[in-house]
Amino acid sequence: MAWARLYAAWALGEQGRNKAALTASEQAVDLFDRAGNRTGVANALIGLSLAWQALGRHADALAALERAVAVLRDPAAGPAGSITTIPVTGALCLTAEIHLVLHADEAAVQAATAALRTPGLPMTAPARSRTLRARARAYQQLGDISAARADLDAVLEIKKVDRDETTLRKVKDLLRALPAAG
Hints:
Blueprint: H1 2-14, H2 18-35, H3 38-54, H4 58-73, H5 85-101, H6 105-116, H7 125-142, H8 145-162, H9 165-177
Protein name: Tetratricopeptide (TPR) repeat protein
Pfam families: TPR_12, TPR_8
InterPro entries: TPR-like_helical_dom_sf, TPR_rpt
């Protein structure tokens, strides 16, 4: 039942029915918690954060993500390198993006760096690219243009390998838009 509520929450969110997604996510968190499924709780909290974010409630989204990361980092959720690594890196990447919205650029850098350094399963190329782009935006906001450029150069290399022409163009444009290193 808990997984069904979580899948419903994700589907509702994809349909733009964010209040219904929020309710379904809250129900999934409760059901997973009562069942003692910590990985399920964390995934439902990530779903909850997405609903809060879609509703413009960024502080609530951030709180749900921080709770998800705490649950997943608890040894009871599973060992490092287990399947729990995937939601940890995703939650940290989303945390970085929310910090950017909230203009908490230092916190965005910290969250993105933590995602990139999470031990265990390697990040997928799209997740690594997304995280590096978030960190590059934060570095740019902080005035660290060389760090922003380094992260965008890393994204460029990832996108050359996976032949993502659309993102390649976007990253090249971002690199051109950066001020010259001083």
